[in-house]
Design goal:
By secondary structure, this protein is α+β, with helices and mostly antiparallel strands. The chain has two domains: about 80 residues, no CATH class; about 80 residues, no CATH class. The protein has five helices and four strands, in the order αααββββαα. It has a four-stranded antiparallel β-sheet, with helices on one face. A hairpin with a 4-residue loop joins strand 3 and strand 4. Helix 1 runs antiparallel to helix 2 and helix 1 packs parallel to helix 3. The protein is elongated, with a radius of gyration of 25 Å. It binds zinc ion (ZN). The site of zinc ion has 6 residues, from loops.
Amino acid sequence: MIAGVTATALAPTSAVIAILLALTGLLQAAVLITRNLTLREQLPAGLHPVGYSALYAGSGIGYGLSAAATGLLLTTTPALPSSSLEEAEFWVGTFHGSHDGLPAKVTATRDDTRPEPHVWTCTCGASRSFPTEHGVWPAAWRHTHPTRYDRLRSWATRRSRTAR
Ligand SMILES: [Zn+2]
């Protein structure tokens, strides 16, 4: 069952995902029924509430673990470019983070036809270009993962802007 769910995360097409989910769901239904019947047989009637509580606590932990596993898979599986790219433009990398209290996504691209081929653009509208690939990744990373100092600086900039 766990293998089925994991395979779902790595499946290439939605059709495969649908089949895997259906199979996993069938398995899970069987497991649930067997588990509940077994518990009823093994425990004296007076202990049924305790047994079922423990059972649900256990499945709660299971949900937590599978959520953690999903998170790990999502961060280790390379993200595909979601936006359409110009013809001469190559997708280089995507940075997920946040700044100013909002989620931000930076897409880095390379296009040899531009005067500065290396460019990243953020979902907030910010964009920077670089003549070489050096500097693109650190700057994109820092934009989506601002340090305490960066946050203080952008806060100060906003304040001075609204004060004027
Ligand atoms: Zn931004």
